[in-house]
Design a protein that fits this description.
Length: 87
């Protein structure tokens, strides 16, 4: 299992943002760090176009011709690995 590397970051929040963070922590039942991470992920999705997401490159890998396997839903991991190795 991969070890996630986390680095400390110091952030200064005014009372308004501290109240927002406290409210989110209570509603989501998560730590302040987790609430901030989720907020960053959400903001990143707004700022970075979906087309730049590496998963976007998976679309169309299955082909669609007569040679395309019909069991993609079952063996998709195997086919994706094979396709990536062929590139």
């Amino acid at each position: 299992m991969a070890v996630l590397e986390k680095k400390p970051v110091q952030v200064y929040l005014g009372s308004r943002h501290q109240n927002i963070l406290d409210t989110l922590v209570k509603k989501l039942n998560v730590s302040k760090a987790e609430a901030l991470r989720r907020g960053l992920e959400s903001l990143a999705r707004e700022v970075v176009p979906v087309e730049e997401d590496p998963a976007w490159q998976l679309i169309g890998l299955a082909g669609g011709d007569a040679d395309t396997p019909t069991d993609w839903s079952v063996n998709h991991d195997r086919y994706l690995v094979e396709e990536c190795q062929n590139e």
